[in-house]
Write a structure and sequence with these properties.
Shape: globular
CATH topology: Thrombin, subunit H
Strand content: over 45%
Helix content: under 10%
Distance between the termini: 26 Å
Number of helices: 0
Structural class: mainly beta
Length: about 80
């Protein structure tokens, strides 16, 4: 399988929230992260839109995200370039 990540994946276990719409938020766990994206563990990916804002609980930062892939309980996202860390 070809690795298409732009940077090296770093395993993390961080709490976060997926925010979208008019105040809707869903809790998530950030499983791994790169400079350009992350893998999010969610209870269910159903109803989560393709674009949303991710709030990281530990440092109170936020990232604009676009969904790259999804499964029943995980979502792979790419961060917008303006938010790359």
């Amino acid at each position: 399988m070809q690795n298409r990540r732009e940077s090296t994946r770093q395993r993390v276990l961080k709490g976060g929230s997926i925010a979208f719409g008019k105040g809707a938020a869903i809790g998530c766990v950030i499983r791994n992260m790169t400079r350009s994206g992350a893998c999010l563990l969610v209870e269910s990916s159903i109803g989560i839109p393709d674009q949303f804002e991710l709030f990281l609980s530990d440092d109170k930062s936020r990232r604009q995200c676009g969904v790259v892939w999804r499964s029943v309980d995980q979502i792979g996202v790419a961060f917008s370039h303006a938010n790359a860390v």
